[in-house]
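help with this record:
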Amino acid sequence: MARSGIRYEEVKETAEILLGRGLNPTIQRVREYLGTGSNTTISEHLKRWQQQIAAAPRAVLPPTVPETVTQAMEAFWKIAVQSAETAFEEQRTRALLAVTTAEQARDAAVTESRQAHAAAAEAHHQWEISQATQRDLADRLLVEQERRTAAEMAIQEAEKRVQVATASIAEMRAETDARIAQMNTTLQQLRTDLDQQRLEAEQRLEYERQRGEANESRLMQLLDRERAERTAEQQMFATEHQKHRHQESTLRHQLEDSQREGTLLQRNLAAIQERLEQSTTLLEQRNTQIQETERALGIMQVRLETEINLRQRLEQEEGEMRKLLKEIMVQSNSLQHLKQ
């Protein structure tokens, strides 16, 4: 429990005054304003006052409105409710007074001096009400001015954020466009190189194929000629065996030379086939490179789509921030109309 000393109503009134000035009602500020009171007592009263404010209905404001503005609006609402209750009590008091005056008018025993005294008291009461109303209007005007200042500051801050976001979006958009153009250029260059490599590989393969076919044709011609010559020689050897026996050694040497030439031709054919296999292997390697290039093109396409999605998301965030700025401008216009 709070010790005897300053009352809760004093702490409550001081906190509301500080809020109306746009200040946070801390223990030190309340104590400096009152000029007395212990920190423990002020802390307990402030805690009770904050709990009452938390239990009271709150106005729903955009999340960008500062906390001080929100607290000031809540204090202003509470003061307005209290003012309305005070006005109702004053009207009820005046109504009761009018009934009493009517009853006193019917009563012949009421003297004119009492009526004059009641009229003077009523005039004094009305003067006090007028003074309280003027003070309340002055406080409300001060709160409204501070509230408008805070709202204008919030609008300026939001405009700065929108400008920064717009510049960032424009910069990112330019960078994205540059990346897209660079990727398109690289993609076009890769396609050109790929077509050129494919054309060169096909030309080399066609050249090797034609060369192999020519070598094979020449080899077959040589083999056919060799067979024809061997057949002719065998026929001549059969018919003139007795006559040309002394040429047997020479013919045998010629036959060996022909066999060696046939062996050489077979080796050449094997070499040609090996070169064809190497050309086939080279073509397969080119095809593998082409597939890797196509996969790289696919990765670049995915990156390009990612850049496009990022630009779309930035444009969506820009739209949301513009929408938030419009809401703040509408709120500011509402505050100006309320002041008017």
User: Anything to note?
Assistant: The helical segments are 8-20, 27-34, 39-55, 67-106, 112-239, 248-339. The chain has a mean pLDDT of 78. The two ends are 45 Å apart (CA to CA).
